[in-house]
Design brief:
binds NADP nicotinamide-adenine-dinucleotide phosphate; about 30% helix; 15 strands; Rossmann fold
Length: about 300
């Protein structure tokens, strides 16, 4: 068994909530180094840097997980690949599609692994939903992703800046489930984006989808202004007559009202198992389908200005 010596770049919320504890519990990985612009350190890491360029110079480091905001991911990932390190990309994998394609090509040339992670896909309920829908046509899809930005993203200014994606930061998680379970490709038909008058990223979005050949009622509603109960639900009705509902962000599955799967999410455990498998096979996994839908929603989106957002 090869133990992958890993460095984490960016010790923000997701690095602390998930990457650090999951790496600690996975014997295939050893945390060797961290880099934090604020100068944070971690007891398990032999090396600590403020400048990630210094971290990339550590010769025994094999891989890095880039847990920064998306706007800076491409440059860091580029530097990492050129330094001979394999790369795990937090979602969204870059700021633009062209950046992601550049990384894919660069990793191939360098003979290194690059891995686009979509954490919401790593749920048993999502796998079971995909199996249940295989071979059927979809008559109705309703994605409801409504949460309270003040609760989930306090103080995260980057999320409101251009390239921070606004409501698509959580919305892309829903789209990563949709692209995983849909039995046929899905496209953005219409998109309406609500921008607070003082921000460069949307606070809400309404999307209509189409597939190549069905004429269904396929929609998504994303909103960051939800107080009280939060909704992370995906309902799908098939031409076979059954209805499937994924709730709690993809960790719970009901089919025709019958509970099929309800599990505590183990998403990042699944991500690191997959990363180990890719590294062992020296293969990359670059799935850009959720990211393309977001790009398309911005590309053809109708812009509506709404009240300023003040945290
Ligand atoms: P965050 O709490 O704001 O953390 C991001 C960290 O990146 C910052 O704390 C900072 O850490 C570092 N950073 C910021 N600007 C940087 C720059 N210019 N160059 C290098 N490093 C920089 O954000 P987060 O919630 O962890 O999200 C990070 C990424 O993970 C996002 O793409 C997000 O979509 C994804 N994600 C988040 C969650 C979640 O629940 N929060 C879940 C899944 C995925 P240092 O000061 O330590 O460098």
């Amino acid at each position: 068994m090869t133990v992958h010596k890993i460095g984490i770049i960016g010790l923000g919320k997701i690095a602390q909530d998930q990457h650090l504890p999951v790496i600690k519990s996975n014997p295939d990985f050893e945390l060797l180094a961290v880099s934090s612009t604020r100068g944070l350190s971690h007891e398990d890491a032999k090396y600590t840097f403020q400048d990630y360029h210094e971290l990339l110079k550590v010769p025994e480091l094999d891989v890095v997980a880039i847990c920064t905001p998306p706007q800076v991911r491409h440059q860091i990932a580029r530097d990492a690949l050129l330094a001979g390190k394999s790369v795990l990309l937090e979602k969204p994998p870059a700021a633009t599609l062209s950046e992601l394609e550049d990384l894919r090509v660069l990793a191939e040339r360098a003979g290194k692994t690059i891995f686009t992670t979509w954490h919401s896909q790593y749920n048993k309920a999502v796998d079971e939903a995909k199996k249940a829908l295989a071979g059927w046509s979809i008559k109705r899809l309703l994605v409801t992703w409504k949460e309270d930005v003040r609760h989930w993203h306090p103080g995260q200014e980057w999320i409101w800046q251009a390239g921070g994606f606004g409501i698509f930061d959580p919305g892309i998680n829903a789209l990563s489930i949709v692209t995983r379970i849909m039995p046929e490709p899905i496209f953005i038909k219409t998109s309406t984006l609500q921008f607070p008058s003082n921000r460069d990223a949307p606070i809400a979005a309404n999307l209509e989808f189409q597939t190549g050949h069905t004429d269904g009622n396929l929609q998504a509603v994303f909103d960051w202004r939800q107080t009280g109960p939060q909704s992370w639900d995906i309902e799908v009705e098939t031409d076979a007559g059954f209805t499937l509902k994924l709730s709690q962000g993809g960790s719970c599955l009901e089919i025709d009202g019958r509970l099929v799967v309800q599990e505590q999410p183990q998403e990042y455990q699944g991500i690191y198992r997959r990363f180990d498998a890719l590294l062992t096979l020296n293969r990359s996994e670059v799935d850009d389908t959720p990211f393309r839908l977001v790009a398309d929603a911005f590309m053809i989106g109708k812009r509506v200005q709404v009240d300023p957002f003040v945290e």
